[in-house]
Amino acid sequence: MSDSRQVGADPDGQADAESNTDETGNRRTAGETILAAEGLRKSFGGITAVDGVEFEVERGTITGLIGPNGAGKSTTFNLLTGVHTPDSGRVRFDGTDITGWQPDRIARQGLVRSFQIARELEDMTVMENVMLAPPDQFGEGFWASVLPGFRGRVARQEAELRERAWETLAFFELDDLANERAGSLSGGQRKLLEMARVLMTDPEMILLDEPMAGVNPTLEEKLLDRLHELQERGYTFLLVEHDMDVVMNHCDPIVVLHQGQVLAEGGPQLVRNDERVLEAYLGGTVES
Ligand SMILES: Nc1ncnc2c1ncn2[C@@H]1O[C@H](COP(=O)(O)OP(=O)(O)OP(=O)(O)O)[C@@H](O)[C@H]1O
Ligand SMILES: [Mg+2]
Predict the structure, then answer these.
(1) Class of the 32-110+203-288 domain?
(2) Distance in angstroms (rounded) separating the CA atoms of residues 279 and 266
(3) What is the pTM of this model?
(4) How far is the CA of 42 from the centre of ligand 2 (A)?
(5) How far apart are CA 15 and CA 128, in angstroms?
(6) Domain boundaries defined on the chain
(7) Ligand 2 centre from 238 Cα, in Å?
(8) Which of the ligands is closest to the CA of residue 256?
(9) Tens-of-pLDDT digits for all 288 residues of the chain?
């Protein structure tokens, strides 16, 4: 995992601009597949929620995953992040077959989804929430008592973690709220905090299921702005979002699901004008 992706590691974005582009100024990573869904299928009882879903996500994109209610978007997310195991099909991330892996292992590999702030975390401060996010933290228990030098290392690690937490909070303009209860945040601030928590796990690719739901227009702007800033720094996003303005203006490409299958995919213009997509959203019969 490269440090250049770390929030705050390079406030003016200089190093990132260099590390993500080649000598001609093109993105070095353009065209590279980071995530592939290969023939994913998942049934619940008699309902086939995901029925042979196949698509690829290119590194460095904000890819949209859309479709009418019940199309299979959330189930697809769950298959990609290990919450559900597919009945058949594969998930490939960064060249590794991660099918059947547990969610925490997938997260450590760099594919992370955002989670709502759990109830228990609402009574903690914003800073504590961010500090608690990274996986693989050690700092207590058996090893601390037996390994020489471990305590010093833990203290150093803790200081580094705290610094990164501050940088991440500042990136989302949440630093002024560091000592507030997480439970006291507005809907939009919560979404920013959820994003901050995701970033602390040092992901490569982030999956967001309706990140703009319940967010006021001002914070929505801020969230979208941060999303693009992170994209510039080399992160990849897969976004499920119902707000078509958000999708059409901020996602490219867009994958359209309908009845558990990929109905269409392409740039916003292409998808917007696709007859089958219109029909799917209007509830009409779709012929392929
Ligand atoms: N755990 C489950 N048990 C039974 N059926 C499920 C389960 N999860 C999803 N389904 C069904 O699978 C289909 C796809 O659901 P899914 O939640 O993936 O759709 P979605 O595209 O996310 O919809 P929405 O836009 O409403 O969030 C639906 O018919 C849903 O009822
Ligand atoms: Mg859903």
Answers:
(1) alpha beta
(2) 17
(3) 0.84
(4) 15
(5) 29
(6) 1-30, 32-110+203-288, 118-201
(7) 14
(8) 1
(9) 444 455 544 444 444 444 444 444 444 456 799 999 999 999 999 999 999 999 999 999 999 999 999 999 999 999 999 999 999 999 999 999 999 999 989 998 999 998 777 788 899 999 999 998 765 544 444 455 556 666 677 777 888 889 999 999 999 999 999 999 999 999 899 999 999 999 998 899 999 988 888 889 999 999 999 999 999 999 999 999 989 999 999 999 999 999 999 999 999 999 999 999 999 987 755 444
